Amino acid sequence: MSLKGKTAIVTGSNSGIGLGIAREMARAGADVVLNSFTDRNEDHALAAEISAEFGVSARYVAADMSDGAQCRQLIETAGGCDILVNNAGIQHVAPIDAFPVEKWDAIIAINMNSAFHTTAAALPHMRQRGWGRVVNIASAHGLTASPFKAAYVAAKHGVVGMTKTVALETAEEPITCNAICPGYVLTPLVEAQIPDTMEKYNMGREEVIKKVMLERQPSREFATVEQLGGTVNFLCSDAAAQITGTTLSVDGGWTAL
Question: Which InterPro entries match (predicted)?
């Protein structure tokens, strides 16, 4: 599944799932553009590390995914786009009648609207190059729901719906659009939550992971960022050329329940 010669833009990729995906794409030979809303030395250092490790071009472009104009400018600043991975996202948990309006607006903007803006800007580049892949990182919550996550669930369902529309609009072109729907993924952020959860429930590490954190994930195992990166690489391969407009769950059986 070589991606040599392809340029991949991954939004929200200076940590966690996005960084894991970018690294796996670089491992497969893609030139990568990392992104987040910050513009720190360590952000650019991350790109330099990926470039040195995998022998590809890697750079960091700051853009706020809550701002539609900056989303579109990210694509133009990158200078080309064969593969677009819409990964940027945030979360807030609250009952709907107490959900802060500003949190709702931010989640919808970053988790859903950004994918509209980046995709709209990227498609002309893909058409010019005669090939393209759009991969939207949705969620198990793009297919099901949980209480107290109204904005996140709404946004991820919206991303799944938009994925299908883009796929139909590009169906006769060498461009595909799919959504990956992860369950719980082991990221540094999640890892940092484990000790506090152990203390709260007075449980050992493995017990709190299986009985509390992964209660809804039948495999009782986290997905890894490397697995998600491998799934993205598969969707970008020739083997997946006729896979478009669908969702691929990486959720340990969550949505099979």
Answer: 3-OHbutyrate_DH, NAD(P)-bd_dom_sf, Sc_DH/Rdtase_CS, SDR, SDR_fam
